[in-house]
Design goal:
Layout lengths: L2 H13 L6 E3 L7 H8 L6 E9 L2 E8 L6 H8 L4 E3 L2 H8 L16 E5 L8 E4 L5 E5 L1 H8 L2 E3 L3
Parallel strand pairs: 2-6, 3-5, 5-8
Antiparallel strand pairs: 1-7, 2-3, 2-4, 6-7
């Protein structure tokens, strides 16, 4: 567990005017499947916070746990070059959080963020809260508001 990373997410939620709905679990939930099993929800309602490297800059894609991001489609939609999955050191550097626990917010600096519009189909979403044992619940509209993400089809 990383209490500092989780505390950063809690602070960011409150600073954005959102409720602190962070839940801490006894066992790790580092994947969408593990989180859905623990929460008893559809894996598609899990919001994966995936960090990519876009020409040396971080790009955060908030994608449904049931989705596989089509990086070629996203790159074409953004009119940009090649998007590569970021390595764990790059993720930690830009988010302050480790792969498997990355949250949509609470990072040292603002990261360009895309929001998978298929997540809008779920009344409640669950997202990582900074470490492998923590998640928070939120609506699609509230997640869009607090992250100021660009809505996009990512698959």
């Amino acid at each position: 567990m990383d209490p500092d990373a989780v505390a950063n997410v809690r602070r960011a939620l409150l600073a954005a005017g959102a409720a602190d709905t962070v839940a801490v679990f006894d066992s790790a939930v580092p994947t969408a499947a593990a989180a859905a099993a623990t929460l008893g929800c559809d894996v598609a309602a899990i919001t994966n916070s995936l960090v990519f490297n876009l020409d040396g800059a971080p790009l955060l894609i908030l994608a449904s746990g049931a989705a596989k991001v089509d990086v070629r489609k996203v790159a074409a939609r953004l009119g940009s070059g090649k998007i590569r999955r970021a390595d764990p050191d790059f993720v930690l550097l830009h988010t302050g959080q480790r792969v498997g626990g990355v949250a949509p917010l609470g990072h040292p600096e603002k990261i360009r963020t895309l929001l998978d519009d298929s997540l809008a189909a779920h009344p409640t979403l669950w997202a990582g809260a900074g470490d492998h044992n923590s998640m928070f619940s939120i609506t699609y509209q509230e997640l869009h508001r607090i992250t100021n993400a660009e809505e996009l089809q990512v698959r």
